[in-house]
Design a protein that fits this description.
Elements (H helix, E strand, L loop, with lengths): L9 E4 L3 E7 L5 E6 L7 E2 L1 E2 L4 E7 L6 E8 L2 E5 L6 E2 L6 E2 L22 E4 L1 H4 L10 H5 L2 H7 L3 E4 L3 E3 L9 E7 L5 H14 L3 E6 L48 H17 L4 E4 L3 H4 L13 H17 L4 E4 L21 E3 L3 H9 L10 H6 L11 E4 L13 H5 L7 H14 L5 E5 L19 H5 L1 H14 L13 E8 L4 E7 L8 E6 L5 E7 L4 E8 L17 E4 L3 E6 L3 E6 L2
Parallel strand pairs: 11-12, 11-20, 12-15, 15-16, 16-17, 17-18, 18-19, 19-20
Antiparallel strand pairs: 1-2, 2-6, 3-4, 3-7, 5-6, 7-8, 7-10, 9-10, 13-14, 21-22, 22-23, 23-28, 24-27, 25-26, 25-28
Length: 590
Amino acid sequence: MSQKTKKNVGAVVGRSGVSFRVWAPFADQVSLIGSFNGWNEQPLDNEGDGYWYCMVRGAIPGQEYKFIIRRGNETLVRNDPRALHFTTSAGTSVIARSTFDWGDDKFVPPPIEEQVIYELHVGTFNRPDPSINGTFYDLIDKLDYLSGLGINMIELMPVSTMLMDRGWGYAIDYIFAVESMYGGRHGLMQFVKAAHSKGIGVILDVVYNHLGPDSHLDLWNFDGWHEEGYGGIYFYNDWRAETPWGNTRPDFGRKEVRQYILDNISMWVHDCRVDGLRVDSTHYIRNVKGNNDDPEHDILEGWSLLQQINTISRKINPNVITIAEDLACNNYIVKPVHEKGAGFTAQWELNFPFMLREALKTADPANLKLDGILSKLDSRYNDNPFSRVVYSDSHDSAANGSSRLIETISPGKPDSLFARRQALVAAGIILTVPGIPMLFQGQEFMQGGSFNDWQGIDWNKAGRFNGITEAHRHLVALRKNSWGNTKGLVGKGFNLIHNDEVNKVIAYHRWFSGGAGDDVVVIINFGNRGFDTYDIHFPQDGSWHIRFNSAWSGYDNGFKTKMSDYSVNVVNNIGVLAVSPNSVIILSQD
């Protein structure tokens, strides 16, 4: 959908002052008030296309402002929808300088097949003072830790200005401003720059499927016009406005609203230099009901907007990764735009964590259900194994009435021996199956409970469960082929080579091209029975080395296996080895 775009919307800092431009097509008059004019009204000129404009000589960054909009007998005091900073979440627009000193930053993220994502929430990931939200600067303090863990991509939950001082970030009021409690726009840029210096890319979660809720939304009836009780110029004013979060779906068919969203994309990728975008609930952008195969409720302009989001992102940065949170059953989400797809790099594998819970919540083989997870081990879209993000926990699966994996399988005792074993089984799976693996904050040191936005994660556990953390570090290194002997884990090949339905032991083969240092065999015992000798079919004969055994006593005093690395001699494609209960073993050849 081609269209002319309006330049310099919002407050734009120039050499001699600041220009202000705002979209208010149904206004009779628009004025500007601010700390630069003693909060006295200064009229804006009507540009004839719905936009209003004025230049304020001598205005500088840091000064506050608002718009006065009059329509008929109604007078509205509004913040700038394009403001880059606010005094507080419910405060006043602030003129912000858009420039930033990036120094010699020329970061390029690792290839998709080598990326390991770590999802975190700025407010709770590192909170030195339990009574205060964490900030971008607190995140910077933990970059060495994350780099040491092997993480090379961090996914931030939304950071745009939100409606409360604490929140998940999905109730967004203004999409251009970065939450001041987190450190604002400058803090975000400092964090991205610092992450890049550690070899870590940054993926940002963005929300365009809805805004609000409407009762607190300054964009609601922004210039006084609306129809049928709906939200006015920024929103659909009919049945298409309906979302699970209120009647606040943006009007994707209105060119000014599309530009509002696409300029926001450009800001994140170009100005803030984020390396990826995770787009929230894309199924509610392309369909009113969030469905597949439902033409009656499809939003065609929503689909084309998704295509434009991906096209513009990659035009700015060809290396950007874009991730959709969709229904995880639509190949067209990750098809290229030129093939009529939405153009995303990958989509969250939404059912994966729930299938994993079914497979791990009991150790009793009689009650184990593996069909679900077996069906998801090699789920892929358009024959691309890296078209999905796989995880055992996320902000969604660990909340919304549910809990983190270890809390779910061991209620009230999330650090029990059983939970510790199963935590490593889960990590072993997500870091060895095809897909882009993602860890959720604290899972590498047994953070329990449910995710919330008021309770910081317990960093004392990082010391208490340092062996579990070390196991995650080893798994991440193997996943990235950091030691040069597990190239198969960054390859496309996958084959389920063993499925013992009685004892609940499976094995799969991963490969890139095949051969020594490439072929990888992963053995998983979901059951509670260990075996001193167990036969597994291997791809080829010779000596196979155990690169990882989750039952190694070096990871936990409660684990019994004494050796972390020994060889298995495979003859006639059969290898015999000991397999501990509730464990993962990874093998390859030199």
